[in-house]
């Protein structure tokens, strides 16, 4: 499950943390869950915490900001099992072209946003080691070399 950042202190703590990934339109900030404010834990539940910053400067229309926000939360919900247990903030860092995406709720905009978000979130997901599969060209052991 993904917890949402709610307080100003939570957002400030995450934004002060490391910038861990960028795409052409988004930036992702991350901080460990052990952050505290005035002796109180900012993130009381060990889970994935997510916040969204969509400045009006980069998405003027509220309908655009809401559509992007919904895409961010849905993409994070789908990828929650692969995401690290940390506090994350997804920040819009440049606008989506209004000439290319005329409608704020167009399927083209939603697909573009989702593709970038998937790429962004994949970059912070811990890498799962690939199982060791023997190569078809593996050298033959000395015991088996006489049988050939």
Describe the protein:
There is one protein chain. The strands form 2 sheets. Strands 1-6-7-3-2 form a 5-stranded mixed beta sheet, with helices on both faces. The protein has one domain (2-124): Ribosomal Protein S5, domain 2 (2-Layer Sandwich). It contains 4 helices and 7 strands. It is of the alpha/beta class and 148 residues long. It has helices at 8-15, 62-79, 107-124, 142-145, and strands at residues 2-4, 18-22, 26-31, 36-37, 40-41, 48-53, 87-92. The model has no long low-confidence stretch (mean pLDDT 85). The protein is globular and about 50 Å long. Helices cover 32% and strands 20% of the residues.
List descriptors.
148 residues, alpha/beta, Ribosomal Protein S5, domain 2, 5-stranded mixed β-sheet, two-stranded antiparallel sheet, 20% strand
Describe what is shown at a glance.
The chain has helices at 8-15, 62-79, 107-124, 142-145; strands spanning 2-4, 18-22, 26-31, 36-37, 40-41, 48-53, 87-92. The protein is an alpha/beta fold.
Structural shape: globular
Task: Provide the CATH top-level class.
Answer: Alpha Beta
Helix share of residues? 25-40%
Instruction: Find the CATH topology.
Output: Ribosomal Protein S5, domain 2
Termini gap: 56 Å
Mean of the pLDDT scores? 85
- SSE run: EHEEEEEHEHH
- Calculate Rg over CA atoms: 21 Å
CATH architecture: 2-Layer Sandwich
Biggest sheet character: 5 strands, mixed
Number of helices: 4
**Percentage beta strand:** 15-25%
Largest sheet: spatial strand order:
1-6-7-3-2
Secondary-structure-derived class: alpha/beta
